[in-house]
Amino acid sequence: MNAFPFFFNTFVFMKILLTGANGGVGTVVRQMALDTEGIDLVPCSREALDVLDSNALKAALLKHKPDYVINAAAFTQVDRAEVEQQEAFRLNVECLKGMVDACNQVGAVLIHLSTDYVFDGKKTTPYTEENKESPINVYGASKLAGEQVVLAYGNGIIVRTSWVYSLHSKNFLAAVPRLLRTKKEPLQVENTQVNSPTFAPHLVEALFALVQKNVRRGLYHFTNTGGGCTRYEFACRVRDKILEKEPGAVLAPVIPFGPEWQEPPGTAPRPLYSVMSPDKIAKQLGLEVPHWEEGIDFII
């Protein structure tokens, strides 16, 4: 899939070491690297490379000598982070210190994925890279602390993204088509949190563009465009698109949770509005970022 009509003025061959290679984003990176000219990918699963082991990180980078490291390994369970705080900070902060040291030894650029949850959600217009961070949950705090480690490195890049989904994702957005086709009762969906869905292949194309353009440091936001939506609005659009392709499909109706609905105990607070603007990365790399609805066709 080539969603972005960008062209590189000079051909550059780059070696990338990928951590978290079997995760949702990592799987898409592996697949797309096969069809992306100029990318030599060294995929490292959690079993193959323990990112918490600084010696293992150094050994891997000294062996492969990558130009770039894309870190797709992280603690991403937002609710669990509230009770497993030490583990969240180990995976989202402490391991990055060893990763930075290893990258520094071979002169590699580190691209680290972060999140919109570094913001408190009090804005009503898209967040830019200049907006002040103020996380309201442990997960967001751990990701912000990790960002600071990476940005202190001279060759560190942060790419904040949100609601990433694909056929390989294990989250609600990716599950919506299956739920619509299999549920016998209405699908009730949260309708208060506004965010930016991001189709994983679009994100990966942007990551590869950073590499091919030889960008070596910076803070960027990448999500699909369109102003964001709630999970309810996303589910409704998925349903509409299925019916456009399959007029006779029998699908569960989608209804929003009522005003009396409350999050179950143990649920971490989330920012109510965390739409981010991808304008900076789009302008710098010459990308045309697709609307959030465009990824839906590939999961239904």
Fold and architecture overview:
By secondary structure, this protein is of the alpha/beta class. The chain has a single domain, classed as NAD(P)-binding Rossmann-like Domain (Rossmann fold, 3-Layer(aba) Sandwich), CATH 3.40.50.720. 36% of the residues lie in helices and 14% in strands. The chain contains nine helices and ten strands. Strands 2-1-3-4-5-9 form a six-stranded parallel beta sheet, with helices on both faces. It has a two-stranded parallel sheet with strand order 6-8. Helix 1 links the parallel strand 1 and strand 2.
What is the strand and helix layout of this fold?
Layout: E1 14-19, H1 24-33, E2 39-44, H2 54-64, E3 68-71, H3 78-81, H4 85-106, E4 109-115, H5 138-151, E5 156-161, E6 164-165, H6 172-182, E7 187-189, E8 198-199, H7 200-212, E9 218-221, H8 231-245, E10 254-256, H9 279-285
Parallel strand pairs: 1-2, 1-3, 3-4, 4-5, 5-9, 6-8, 7-10
Helix pairs in contact: 1-7, 2-4, 4-5, 6-8
- Radius of gyration (CA) equals 19 Å
How far apart the termini lie comes to 16 Å
The major sheet is characterized as:
6 strands, parallel
Give the class-level CATH name: Alpha Beta
User: What oligomeric state is this?
Assistant: single chain
Number of strands: 10
Order of helices and strands: EHEHEHHEHEEHEEHEHEH
What class do helices, strands and sheet pairing give?
A: alpha/beta
Low-confidence parts, pLDDT < 50 over ≥5 residues? 3-10
Integer count of domains: 1
